[in-house]
Amino acid sequence: MCIVSQSFFWAWSAKASSGTAPSPYDLYMEFHGAGTVVTGASGGIGEALARRFHHLGAFVVVSDVVEAGITALAAELNAKRPNSALAVTADVSTESGNQQLVATARQFLLQDGRNGIDLFFANAGVGNGALIETTSENDWNLAFNVNVHAHRWAAKYLIEDWLKAGRGYFCSTASAAGLLSQIGSMPYSMTKSAAVAFAESLAITYGDRGIRVSCLCPQGVNTNMLRQGDTPGAGIASDVVRSAGDVLEPDEVAIVVSEAIEQEKFLILPHPQVAEFEQRKAADRDRWLSGMRKLQARVYGKG
C-alpha cells in the first residue's frame, strides 16, 4: 500500500511520462484522502468496508435505511479522525433516495478541498423471497429495486461528474449467486446475476474514459442475511451457502476488497473456489445444471 498526500486519490502510475497527461490506464487506486460512500453500512459487509476504508485514510459517507447503526458508526469514526465520516439515512430502493444520497455525500466530500465522491460502493442488498409460487410481487420488486436498480440509480447521478473529471470508481456487492445461481431463492439469483451484468456493462462502456468498476461476489459471509434471511424461505438458501464452503467474517472480506480495489480487479472473489465453479459451469452447463439439481434434492431431503 502506497501512501500519498490527502489531495490525491488517483495517483500517477510508474509508467506515466513526466509532463504528459495520464491516460485512464496510467492511474491507480489510492485510498488515503479518497472520498468514499458505502451503502448498507449499518452492519455486515458494509460496516466492515467503511471501517476498512477509513482505516486506510479515506473519508467515508455511511448510508443505510436504518439510522441507528450508521449514526453510531460515523460517531466512532469521527472520534478517531474528526470530520472524516458522515451518516446519511437513505432508502436506496427508490431513485429519489439514491439521488439524495449522492447529493448529500458529494457536498460533504467536497469540503476543505476534498475531491468529492471518488468511490461509491453499492453494497446494500436484500435476500427476500424463495420460489415463484411463494414469492409475492412486493418481494420481487424489492429485490430488484435494492439489488439492481439501486446500482443503476446511483451510477446515473455519479457518472456525469466522473466523466468530466476523467476518473471515478463504482463498486457493487453482488454474490457468488450472481455467477452460479442460488438454490432456494429465485429473486436473489436473478437480481444478483443482473447486478453482475450491470457492473460488466458499466466497465465495458466507461472503462476507456477513466471509470473503474469492481464487483464483489462472495459466498458465505457471517452477516444477518446469512444468519436469519429476510423470509422463512431464506433458510434453505442459507443452508446451501453454509454447505458450499467457509463462512468468512465481514472484516476478512473487507481486507480482500480493499486489496482488490487497489489492484483495480473487476471481479472480487473472497472465496477463490468460486472462480473454479464458474469455469466448470461455462465448460459444461448441462452437467452443472444436473449437479445443482442433485444438490437441491439433498438440501430438500429428496436425495
From TrEMBL:
Can you say what this protein is called? Unannotated protein
InterPro entries to which the protein is assigned, alphabetical: NAD(P)-bd_dom_sf, Sc_DH/Rdtase_CS, SDR_fam
Q: Which PROSITE patterns match?
A: ADH_SHORT (PS00061)
Pfam families xref list: adh_short
User: Which protein family is it in?
Assistant: Belongs to the short-chain dehydrogenases/reductases (SDR) family.
GO MF, one example: oxidoreductase activity
Q: Could you list this entry's UniProt keywords, alphabetically sorted.
A: Oxidoreductase
Q: Which CDD domains match?
A: SDR_c
Q: Which organism is it from?
A: freshwater metagenome
Q: What is the lineage of its organism?
A: unclassified sequences, metagenomes, ecological metagenomes
